Amino acid sequence: MLYTHATIITVNSSREIILDGAILVQGNLIAAVDKTDALTKLHPTEEVVNLEGRIIIPGLISTHMHTAQTLLRGAADDLELVSWLCERIWVLQGNFTNEDGYAAARISIAEMLLTGTTCFLESMFADRYGFDGLCRAVEESGIRGCLGKIVMDSGKYAGDPKWAMHPGLIENREMSLLGALDMHKKWDKAANDRIRVWFGARTPGGVSDALYKEMTSISKTQGIPITMHCAEVAADRAFFKTLSHTPMSYCDSVGLLGPNTVLVHMVHLDDSDIAKLAETKTHVAHCPTSNSKLASGICRVPELLDSGVNVGLGTDGAPCNNTNDLLQEMKLAGIIHKAKSYDPTLVPAETVMEMATINGAKALGLGASIGSLEVGKKADFVAIDMRYVHLQPYYSPVSAVVYCATGKDVDMVVVDGKVVVKSGKLTTMDEEEVWKEGEKRGHEVVKRAGLTEKVKGRWPIR
């Protein structure tokens, strides 16, 4: 298949942008990237898809999200963190069934595909949600998923008894760690290698030192990557201080740091933490919308990047975003650090594009196969339709995508060589069926949790 007449942001090593460009896809791989005239002459019999007026970018990569939480979109708005987590989100998630987990995965994936995300890292899918269902949803939809199965053995957060998990979410070593290993044997590299199974460790205070050390040892011997929330809120840093540690000195002490680890949020770091991340080549997932909405703070992304730390982007979960649209996340990532620093040159659009594509691919250990549009890489790409008044005129294709486009402007999505979104419509899923099932099951979860009278807006409805 030959995709022609597009502006192509390659994110290759030279960061080339090709005007009137074309991509030749053979099987699930990119066979050529060049000017349209050159490739049509070389491949005159190839079937052609005309993408005139579109900008093609590498498939977006979300390095942090919670698929289960999309059923809870808007269920805990404008609450401080303890109330948000302990009185709403954990209570609701503690009432999930396997069927709810499958419906949540499907609506999450549908939204991600429709808005240009072709690969995502699920942070910590609980056993009660049904990990098999999550994997089935990835397999059926055509998306690429790195799926973190939760690892934990304590129901507390930051060691504080007032931050207690709902009993329905608490797991022990056997259910969490050994369950993750079972799922790794069953699903890792399934669906034509679109599925990778990870350890999704709970944040420090929710996992014992012994379990961390066991998990990180297995990670190193079996090559199973790890993702974990860390230093998200001030309470996290205070907890590390009670252990006579900084966030990264603690993580280092239990073997968490290294090139196979993605640490999420990372808001409350000092200079020594940043230096340790750079030294160990540990990756960071930046989630500016979630951190802003929950008033967690602002990650020191400019300092991390200057120190050589690889930083990707994530949307986090729908209750703290409230969308899975990574294009919207990209705009905030390019703006928020300017406002904090009073320096408009920090984190320019090109850096944001890297964070959402090649940096994300490197964080997931997939930099050799996705994250840029180059010969031999997997054919994962997104066509954004620029033929609208809100997107014209533009002078820099990268700036136009980062600062103007949203997921609503996505026209076509290709993953692993297959078209999964065409003319803004899913080809592998029935969108109406997916959202109706998600709507029904979301309300059932709220009712089951006994929160119907609390999960609503502040203004009267009649």
Describe this structure in words.
By secondary structure, this protein is α/β, with parallel strands linked by helices. Helix content is 38%, strand content 21%. It contains 17 helices and 17 strands. The protein has helices spanning 36-42, 81-93, 98-114, 131-141, 173-187, 190-193, 209-222, 234-242, 247-253, 271-280, 288-293, 301-306, 326-341, 349-356, 358-363, 397-403, 431-448, and strands spanning 2-9, 17-26, 29-35, 48-50, 54-58, 60-65, 117-125, 144-151, 195-201, 226-230, 261-265, 283-286, 311-313, 381-385, 410-415, 418-422, 425-426. The strands form 2 sheets. Strands 1, 2, 3, 4, 5, 14, 15, 16 and 17 form a 9-stranded mixed beta sheet that branches. Helix 3 (98-114) crosses helix 17 (431-448). The longest helix is centred in the C-terminal third of the chain and has 18 residues, at 431-448. The chain is globular. The termini are far apart.
What's this, in brief?
This protein has 462 residues and is an alpha/beta fold. The protein has helices spanning 36-42, 81-93, 98-114, 131-141, 173-187, 190-193, 209-222, 234-242, 247-253, 271-280, 288-293, 301-306, 326-341, 349-356, 358-363, 397-403, 431-448, and strands spanning 2-9, 17-26, 29-35, 48-50, 54-58, 60-65, 117-125, 144-151, 195-201, 226-230, 261-265, 283-286, 311-313, 381-385, 410-415, 418-422, 425-426.
